[in-house]
Specification:
about 120 residues; Sufe protein. Chain: A
Amino acid sequence: MYNEKVLKVFQNPSNAGELQDANGVGTIGNASCGDIMKIYLKIVDDVIVDAKFKTFGCAAAIATASVATDMVIGKTVDEALKIKNADVVDFLGGLPPQKIHCSVLAEEAIHAAVEDYRNRQQAK
């Protein structure tokens, strides 16, 4: 079902865990499959300096969260918002059609975390 790259990332995900000093957190869930993805961002001067994730879901959900967090580290928040689910799928060398929604969760969780960061900045 999954290619070697997806399995490798799933078995050895980077950035797994909670980021205690996150200043942007986004949680997205998919009711139809039960996957829940939480992305934590540490942003300094509009640059994402660290990112972590916690995901309850299948191998594709974990792999896409891992790749998405890798992709945003070092980027500005505006650059991170340009990362699309297709970029994550391409990096992984593809996903089964019924698992594409996992990459959408990753994209949406990044957007939610950036929105949370911006809301926190406005509240200061």
